[in-house]
Amino acid sequence: PENKVRLTCGLEMVKKEEMKIKVSIFDKRLFGSYLAVLSVISLLTSFGLIAFQLPDDFSTRVVAGIIIFTLLVIVFLAMWVHANLEKSASLNFNNSTVEIKIGDIFKESGLKAIPFNEFFDTQVDERIIASTTLNGIFLKKLQGRIGEIEHAIESINKTPIESVDDRLSGKKKRYELGSICQFEDYLMVAFSKFDKDNRAHLKMRDYIESLINFWNEVDIIYAGRSVSIPLFGSGITRFHDYSSISEQELLELIIWSFKISRVKFTYPSKVSVVIHESIVDKINFYKLKGC
Question: Are 203 and 240 in contact (CB under 8 A)?
Fold first, then answer.
């Protein structure tokens, strides 16, 4: 029985360490990188052949050719494996750095964005806000300071777009998506609409507008500080006009929205998109380098 337990544990560990194939072996970008490496290898090989003349013996030349071909295959496979194992990416737009990485947003320095609904509700009751969401975790971490958070929301320098007086629970004031309420180094962001049953939902148009509004407000308040954001929309948000949208697509939309926003984060400040460990296998970090 003891050996069986050890074997089971060993198999589980192997499964956890198994490489997820996110980059195809026929990926065009991978081949482009390989050809660039191949040109360098060819140049070095040419210089080497000048210094060391190969013997005229046919069998020796065949062996040398096989060795070189094998090495080239190994180099390509190594690049392919490395592309699949990448867990971060760094991009540069308009002299601004965008870093995509795995981590815990609460441990990041600088400003940290936390998605809220359009009412800036603070009621963690598994109906309005689920305790397992980033929104819920944030409020639970600061549960002794909810009064201060409520005061910050009431003092937000933003006019609500309407007051929903017949809403049975939660707050009444509805804010424009992408609106920010700052509480110390946290940016509480109105990032999802709520239906009458308090279910978070968005249309893709709303999602894009939210991102653009968000970057515009960040540009006003970040004051040279770095900003960390989660993968907006990857939680329980429902997209009405898309039956399914992947985490990779959401991430690429976030990067695209920052790119067109023209917000400039001068060194050493930067934008970090912090990916939770639970969805790392759904993100192709290698592909992001082409964004």
Answer: yes
Question: How many helical (H) and strand (E) elements, i.e. helices and strands, does the chain have?
Answer: 8, 11
As to burial, measured by CB atoms within 10 angstroms (0-12 exposed, 13-18 middle, 19+ buried), residue 53 is: exposed
Q: Taking Cα atoms as reference points, which of 58, 71, 153, 141 lies closest to residue 106?
A: 141
* pLDDT, tens digit, 9 for 90 and up, residues 216-230: 999 999 999 999 999
Instruction: Determine the Cα–Cα distance for residues 117 and 140; give it in Å rounded to an integer.
Output: 16
Cα–Cα distance measured from residue 240 to residue 195, given in angstroms and rounded to the nearest whole number: 12
What does the alpha-carbon distance between residue 286 and residue 82 come to, in Å, rounded to a whole number?
9
Q: Using alpha carbons only, how large is the chain's radius of gyration in Å?
A: 25
Query: Which has the closest alpha carbon to 182: 223, 141, 128?
Result: 223
Q: What's the first-to-final CA gap in the chain, in angstroms? A: 52
pLDDT of 29-40, one tens digit each? 998 999 998 888
Calpha distance 97→80 (Å, rounded): 26
Q: What phi and psi, each to the nearest 5 degrees, are found at residue 114?
A: -125, 120
φ/ψ of residue 55, rounded to 5: -60, 155
- With bands split at pLDDT 50, 70 and 90, how would you rate the model's confidence at 284? very high
Q: Are strands 96-102 and 88-93 parallel, antiparallel or unpaired?
A: antiparallel
The residue to which tokens 């980059």 are assigned? 23
Give the integer Cα–Cα distance in Å for 151 and 134.
21
